[in-house]
Fold:
Amino acid sequence: MEVASKTILLIEDEEAHAEFVRRAFEGTGSKWEIHHVVSIKEALKWLDGNKSNPPSVIIADYLLPDGTGLEITKGATSPEEVGIPLIILTAHGSERLAVRSLKSGAMDYVVKTAEGLQELPWTVERVLREWEHIRERRRAEKELKRYVKELERANRDLDDFTSTVSHDLRAPLRSIQAFITLLMEDYADVLDETGRGYLERVKEAAERMNRQIEDLLILSRVGRKFVEVETVDLNELLEEIKEDLSARIAERKGEVVVAGKLPIISTQRVWMKELLTNLIDNGLKFNRAEKPMVEVSCEEREKAYLFKVRDNGIGIEEEHLDSIFKVFERLHPASEYEGTGAGLAICKRIVEELGGSIWVESKPGEGSTFFFSIPRESQCTS
Ligand SMILES: Nc1ncnc2c1ncn2[C@@H]1O[C@H](COP(=O)(O)OP(=O)(O)O)[C@@H](O)[C@H]1O
Ligand SMILES: [Mg+2]
Structure:
């Protein structure tokens, strides 16, 4: 098979060394065409004139009359930036020079001894194989970026869809609810006990559907709605949440406590509040203790804040520890513990939007601890 000739740009000011290199390549019978120049200036000019047909490899002497061979990279720091595989030749074989060459985007480094130069053709082959790997990796990275973008778009589309459908479902639902109310008010005596019972159940189902739609709207909003990042004193936020939940706390004779002090962070206040409220509310709700207790604490780690919301409630079986974060996933009927099952899905969404993760540890009968982490920097992605 005819091998297409490939060009090497050789930048070498000593004719004897250039000749040595030429012979080394001729000796292998390979199809390399060597273009030889003697200075950086000349090399840059030639590269400029051959942009559409660049060499496969550049072999540059380190010490040249008008600078060092590394100047050919124009300040690059990686082979990708250089764009053409570069091999540096030098008489002064030193570690420092090798490191500097590699840091400047050279692919390899050859000491100008007879053996070093003789082996150049193999060095070139190896460098080209590595170069191919680098390019493949770069292609794969590009592809991956494209997939991520596509996925993000698909998620956004899904959120848009959820939002639209939820909005659209609200109108007919409102009308159903209105007519149920009319029926109950004006036709209650036309119906018998069983009929009124059915109507009551239709009403409850409609209310439930309404709550689910509201939750879906919240869920779709987490990823879409732009929310300003602000400085939030979480101690104050927690007082506010306790106030909001005061009816539930009083009714259950429960207590919400903060262990230690919570940090002041810059974050999206509404979502942080939604997140903590959901978790604390669950801790009080799924609880049969005489005195339901929820304890909130935060550990400041190097890269993230680790929050804990611990309760002395009913606990969760191991096999459900993951599934409870799915939307509308519940372990108990609404008649036992009210709710739609969207709370934790919303929590997960919020934490992920903030760049963190959420999980739970629990033992049935002994209570649960929900953990979530929030990175200390860039706490906002939307
Ligand atoms: N602190 C908790 N202790 C025990 N079970 C819990 C706790 N938090 C959540 N769960 C379980 O996870 C399910 C999903 O929770 P969530 O999404 O907040 O929905 P909801 O509160 O509307 O039921 C709950 O129905 C419950 O079975
Ligand atoms: Mg809940």
About this structure: The radius of gyration is 34 Å. The first helix runs from residue 15 to 27. The chain has a mean pLDDT of 91. The pocket of magnesium ion (ligand 2) is lined by residues 278, 281-282, 339, 343 (CB under 6 Å).
